[in-house]
Amino acid sequence: MSIESVRAFFAENAPDISVIESDKSSATVALAAEAFGVTPAEIAKTLSLRVGERVLLVVTCGTARLDNKKARAAFGGKPRMLTAEEALEVTGHPVGGICPFGLKTPLPVYCDISLKAFDEVVPAAGSINSAVRLSPDRMAALTRAEWVDVSEMASASS
């Protein structure tokens, strides 16, 4: 159902955007960058979080890490990553394919400002070997995302 729900989302909301599939896994940032021919930073990774009773998605640059202090301030509580099972249940997408498109359950989406460094980013598209290419602003508009500053860039040594 997952990749199909993403295809349906784009067919309805942005028919000019196509889901692309790779014969390689794109389940991690490094694998996705290799599979789709971009740098790891250009992968738009989607984090599924629980803050209190709320579940939300945060899309960040592939090499960014969630800054707990910034996230707590932005979301009004301590964020906790959902388990793989919880994420699949609410998004309809497996870990490695989680994206803000074609969601099983409507969820608030936040785009981290780390994405604004790129003209185009590559988020997953509902499966561990699919993605789409689009501008960060278009992704935010399509998902009605709010821009936030909740990440820190990984150091060069990590």
What would you say this structure looks like, in words?
The chain is 27% helix and 25% strand. The protein contains five helices and ten strands; from the N terminus they run H-E-H-E-E-E-H-E-H-E-E-E-H-E-E. The chain has helices at 2-13, 29-36, 68-75, 84-91, 136-142, and strands at 20-21, 43-51, 54-61, 64-66, 79-81, 109-112, 122-123, 130-131, 146-148, 151-153. The N and C termini lie far apart (36 Å). It is of the alpha/beta class. The chain has a single domain (2-149), classed as YbaK/aminoacyl-tRNA synthetase-associated domain (YbaK protein, Alpha-Beta Complex), CATH 3.90.960.10. It is globular, with a radius of gyration of 14 Å. Strands 2, 3, 5, 6, 7 and 9 form a six-stranded mixed β-sheet that branches. Strands 1-8 form a two-stranded antiparallel sheet. The chain has a two-stranded antiparallel ribbon with strand order 4-10.
Briefly say what this structure is.
The protein is of the alpha/beta class and 158 residues long. Helices cover 27% and strands 25% of the residues.
Helical percent range?
Answer: 25-40%
Shape: globular
**Which structural class do the helices and strands define?**
alpha/beta
SSE topology string: HEHEEEHEHEEEHEE
CATH superfamily: YbaK/aminoacyl-tRNA synthetase-associated domain
CATH class: Alpha Beta
CATH topology: YbaK protein
CATH architecture: Alpha-Beta Complex
